[in-house]
Amino acid sequence: MSLRVSRAFGWVYSACLFALLPAASAQATPTPPPPATTPTTTVQGAPPEAPAIARYENKYEISGGLAYDHLHASPPVTGGANLGGFNIMGTGWFFGPLGLAASVRGYYGTTPTIPNTLGPNGQSIDSPFVSQYFFLGGPELRGPRNQYIATSIHTLFGGVHGTFDSDLKGVPPQKLGIIPSQNVFASAIGGSLDINHSPRLAYRVTPELIITHYNGVPSSTIQYNFGFTAGILWRFQ
Question: Rounded to whole angstroms, how far apart are CA atoms 179 and 135?
Fold first, then answer.
């Protein structure tokens, strides 16, 4: 009896010990630390560059565009001729705000005539083709300006070659009330408004008073006409 009790007690003790071994093993094994996390760094982009500002430190500039000139090539006729063409102008700023400018321009169109029967078979010659080429130079002065716009004024002098009889088929232009072809003194007085697209590139508009000294038709010795140019300007050193 005592032997059986002793064996039973031994089995119970062994079973309890066997059951406690996994728990003891789990407690003895250290828990690994959680993996280290790398702090994330937010990389900020470089701040945007400030827009370039026009400083008007350029030594030279050139502009070009479409041009308009209203000319009384036929003084006896009311209205006059509306001519279109080109205008190329360059300036060197050699004396601070005072520069020297040069302009080459051409204007083309047709002009009205007085009533006539000088055409083929006694027909009237109407709206003959006329043209003008100007070669001018003179001072230009910088006016008020900021980073967005700039102004300037100029007074240009030189000559003009006016062709008014190329479309008349030998008919004297005076018989049509038209100024004869000639080379005469001319000038252009006006100013420019530049709207900056960048420090070097700008959009330019140039209204002017264009003065010519054509003669050959009574009451026509000096012509005062309105002109206008719209185009672009490029500044460079």
Answer: 20
DSSP 199: S
CA distance 55 to 58: 8
Q: What would the pLDDT profile of 183-229 be if each residue is shown by its tens digit?
A: 999 999 999 999 999 999 999 999 999 999 998 866 668 899 999 99
Q: What are phi and psi of 199, to 5 degrees?
A: -60, -25
Write phi, then psi, for 52 (nearest 5 degrees).
Answer: -65, 145
As beta bridge partners, residue 154 has 140, 190
Cβ-in-10-Å burial (0-12, 13-18, 19+) of 93 comes to buried
Q: Is the dihedral of CA 46, 47, 51, 56 positive or negative?
A: negative
How far is CA 195 from each of CA 54, 140, 148, 206, rounded to the nearest angstrom? 11, 18, 6, 12
Amino acid residing at 143: G
Instruction: Report which of 170, 160, 164, 177 is spatially closest to residue 128, judged by C-alpha positions.
Output: 164
Residues in the chain where the model's pLDDT stays below 70: 1-51, 217-220
Phi, psi of 22, deg, nearest 5 = -60, -40
What pTM was estimated for this model as a whole? Answer: 0.77
